Amino acid sequence: MAKNKRRAPSAVLADDVDGGRAELVPDRERARAWSLLIDGAPQSHVDLDDPTRLSFAYQRRLGHVADLVAPAGRPLYVVHLGGGAFTLARYIAATRLRSTQQIVEVDGPLVHFVRAHLPLDPNARIRVRTADARAGLAKVPDGWADLVIADVFDGARTPAHLTSVEFLSDVRRVLKADGHYAANLADGPPLAHLRGQIATAATAFGRLALAADPAVFRGRRFGNAVLLASDRELPVAELTRRVASDPHPGRVEHGRELADFTGGAAVVTDASAKASPPPPSDAFD
Q1: Is the dihedral of CA 269, 274, 275, 281 positive or negative?
Q2: What does each C-alpha distance from 170 to 36, 50, 174 come to in angstroms?
Q3: Could you say which of 33, 116, 181, 211 is the most buried, measured as most Cβ atoms within 10 Å of its Cβ?
């Protein structure tokens, strides 16, 4: 029998959810792999046969963070704000056995849709809670988490109440003393939102690093950036090596260079918070 034979693609699965029209589009190369789209915008990719395979660049960078925040194989306590197709939770469950994870996702119909078609491993310690991210975070005990991952978008924009110093204060409360916070941020020229998020994170954490494509750093196009924050020394050298070696290579900024990039941006408070800017109309063409 011939090896690596391409399979005939399955039908697209679709349903209406609170956030719009959800679609699961089959991967032509892999028998049980799917991409999740909301109103045509790619959200995440899942390979049920190999949950360690992260296809989207920002998810690979978040995967690097999950790999590096603790010694290899050590179980983690993780809070995921934003569920999508549960890609990062599946990844951590596969790479760090016996990890305990909580997913907070506001879109109940989306949770049902994903669970129906892309079921979680019943042996994985993953709890899914349908709630607003900030309300769900408020229910997590003090000092519970090793890692909090924020990947929340409403209509391709991060909601305003998840961009403020008050929100990050609650993230810091939930984290252990040596815990880490990682966030998927999206912005484009002139990068005012991204700079404001770095300035805001600097009020809650002593050390920051930012991974993004060089074109995003230079303000040449709209794209994703992954922020990593903690009060302990960050694994900057290894993160930089991994991000530079990705299929879509990126760059990591930290220390003085990141402070210079921030350029004196104002700290965001609940009173001044705004949703992140929408992507340009051709972003997903």
Answers
A1: negative
A2: 29, 34, 6
A3: 211
In sequence order, the β-bridge partners of residue 134 are none
pLDDT, residue 3, reads 44
Q: How far apart are CA 76 and CA 68, in angstroms?
A: 12
Give residue 156's pLDDT. 87
pLDDT for position 9: 53
Q: What is the pLDDT of residue 282?
A: 67
Q: How many Å apart are CA 89 and CA 122, to the nearest integer?
A: 13
Q: What is the DSSP string of the chain?
A: --TTPPPPPPPPEEEEETTEEEEEEEPSSSTTEEEEEETTEEEEEEETT-TT---SHHHHHHHHHHHHSSSTT---EEEEE--TT-HHHHHHHHHSTT-EEEEEES-HHHHHHHHHHSPPPTTSEEEEEES-HHHHHHTSPTT-EEEEEE---BTTB--GGGSSHHHHHHHHHHEEEEEEEEEEEEE-TT-HHHHHHHHHHHHH-SEEEEEE-HHHHTTSS-EEEEEEEESS---HHHHHHHHHTSSS--EEEEHHHHHHHHTTPPPP-TTT--PPPPPPTTTT-
Q: What integer pLDDT is reported at residue 258 of this predicted model? A: 97
Distances (CA, A) of 147 to 151, 208, 233, 235, 280: 13, 14, 15, 14, 31
Task: Specify the pLDDT at position 10.
Answer: 74
β-pair type (100-105, 125-130): parallel
**Which residues of the chain are under the pLDDT cut of 50?**
1-8, 285
